[in-house]
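thought: fold this chain, then report.
action: predict
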Amino acid sequence: MGKRHTLFILSFFFILQSGSAQKGFPILESAKNSLNYKGNPTNATDRNSLAFSDKGAWFAFGFLDTPNTQAGFSGPFLMTEQNGVWLSPSFVSLQLTDENKNEAINWKNTLVNQNSYNSHLEQQFQNEKVNVKQQLVYLSGHSALQKTSITNKTGKTITLYPSYNASLFLNDLKLSDENKTLKIVSSKSKAIGYIQFLNSNPAIEITKEGYKAQTEKLTLKPNETKDIVVSQTFIFPQYSWQKEKETIAKTTFNTLLNSTQKEKENLLAQLIAKKKAIYKDNIYSDLIAKLELTLQNNTRIAAEGLKHGGLFPSYNYEWFHGFWAWDSWKHAAAVANYDAELAKNQMRALFDYQEPNGFIPDCVYRNNLIEENNYRNTKAPLAAWAIWKIYEKTKDAAFLKEFYPKLKLYHNWWYKERDHDQDGLCEFGSTDGTLIAGKWESGMDNAVRFDDSKILKNGEKAFSLDQESVDLNSFLYAEKNYLSKMAQVLKLTKESKDWQEESTALKTKIQTQFWDASTGWFYDTTIDGKSLIKIMGCEGYLPIWAEVATPEQTKLMKENMLNPAIFNTFVPLPTLAANHPKFKPEGGYWRGPIWLDQSYFGINGLEKYGYTNEANQLAHKLIHNADGILDKGTSIRENYQPLTGKGLEAYNFSWSAAHYLMLLLEDK
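observation:
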């Protein structure tokens, strides 16, 4: 494969403006600094700090922390590179000198504040001479604008000389100055970048470390303020740079910031209005803003192999820069509460790669390399649930019509490729015959229930684990019911009836084969259905979420779920019963820690069977006892320690935020 070259073209313009963005956004103000973006990247792959992005952009920024503060935001953090890298500590960082070539302001000891909002970033510096305020807001999924407002505090006219001096972390980039445009060529991405200082004629010097740029002097009368606006663009070839450039030229920073603030304020107001009555306090409104921001930071527009926009599991973790199947279904179900089009596109992004036999790959990446996209397995069938959740919010029958045949194909694939003994009960498995990919297909990679599993061949590229899983078949039961509802909407009466008949038959099998009355729990079984694999885990929650359990079974399950020695831990509903010998609450991955999707399924299941008070009690603990969920500046984590509440694994995790959001907003 030939080397691919990326051009990052950074053109310099300069614009002088006055005024400031309008105030009056109480929700944004209340929720400010819900995530901590402060940090000092020390190398390209430093993951010690978070970064802010919006509108699906593939690049992000943060705040440089003391003592490394500069008059610029950290980054950009480029997700245009496959696993995300920092281009620079601060690639567009302002220096100001006076007429005597003295430093006009020392950024390191004049920082007043740094504040982040769902809408933008801002920071302020001040000394006896000048007040400097910087704000950064996204124009689109391609561009962000950064405004620096400089106010003369003295009683006399002053002249300042703005310049920029940046170093690069990456050694595989080539910089050049072409017609006052700084170009960066990379071999690792097709994205093209442009940074503009409007109406300026910068003198650009390429250095060994990076670049220097000198722009025109600023003359400020006493109390006068002048603004410098810089646009930063990173755009993939499928989009038009010329069109984006024209849009930037027509944009006034203050108008953009104000419209973005209004957009975010209205979005959050709409979400807050949907809160369940028990979450009326303002702390839950701030949490909603934090959850939305977490999802916002992980949202990416379509690019290269990702033909539709969607959400990363976490941009902060280097291996999560793609779209995963069951993550996507969960993201879409939550995002449908506030952005129906994004939710629809998240579903399309995986179905773009549906194979003729119905198979959906486990994950796909932007560069769409076959060795990176995972076709070794798929993930649990939650797609019909997500599609129906979107339909409930939109009543878009055309969307159902678009997906119904694809969902049928995907659903039926399970019975063709993952039912080893053709008894109507499916197994997790793989396409390559490996046991590890079979475990991955469940999503619970190292779950104790798979410790003794083996792999069986069903056919060409079709293998099953030697056990029938209760969660898988509960998902399939739910899918039959959702497909029946879709068929009704689409006036496919016979198909709706057929799905219902299949659902009824499967319901009986699940209620009998997977149930153990002596312990009051649902378990996987051996493939012949004769022996229970008696590992009490979170897969047992799924029959009540899918509403396949009987009321009597649910009542017994409830007792286990509310028992502090079993599942009602400090943070409740862990992935393995706390009294199991292999329970590993920290570092156990799927052998004990709390995963929010599974806890959600358990709580939502109890709600469906009328145990509202019990569900609310568990949800309260899930929200209040998981570390930092209600605290400003603490990231939403991939999973949590059930006995202490400690956050574990990846930061800024999408499906954790998604399920918290659904718990706060949605009834059964």
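thought: worth noting. The first helix runs from residue 26 to 30.
final: tokens above.
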